[in-house]
Amino acid sequence: MSIALERSVGGFFHEVVEEAVRTQHVEVTEQATSYLVALLTEFAHPDPRRDDAFGRPLALLLHEALGTTGAERFQRLRALGDGTLYLTGFFGDHIETRGVDVGYVTNVGATAYRSAASMLRRPGGSEARDQSDNNVFAELSVKFEAFVHLIAFVAETTLAQQAKSELGVLKLYERWLRSGSATLAKELGARGIGPVRGSGGVH
Fold this sequence. Notes:
By secondary structure, the chain is mainly alpha-helical. The chain has 11 helices and no strands. Helix content is 77%, strand content 0%.
């Protein structure tokens, strides 16, 4: 990917994340906003190694990460938190249709971030606790579910912008069927489609 395109992707995600923060009314620090933009930009690049890693049970990945030490432990915990946040935000509807408890997945991601945050704590009483509580990973852990909703908004916005053909609109509708998202319903309405659940089909 060229530098120009890289900047374009990052710029796009920055705009959409800021819009998501406004519409979802979530209190987010500038540091966390930048982190989410960087995460989304990174995941826009296909990486077979990342896909292979998340083909394994999340509980096992968390157990393995916690069983390591030093830099490897931190990197594994961070990668698990990042991957879980992205997958739940972008593909939460698929997770549910497969019978996986989204709450469980969310808990794994929050735990990974919380454990990563604790590794940044410096020795020394209450000041150390403040240091841990104020880093970006602590914020990602505490607000994990809210950040999932932010990324879901980004996913829906991205899908809507790509829906320039009949196939694109169909994908938009299929995601609406699974999620019932008001954002997607609005996008479908703008295309002259009034989505209706039930035997009546779509109008």
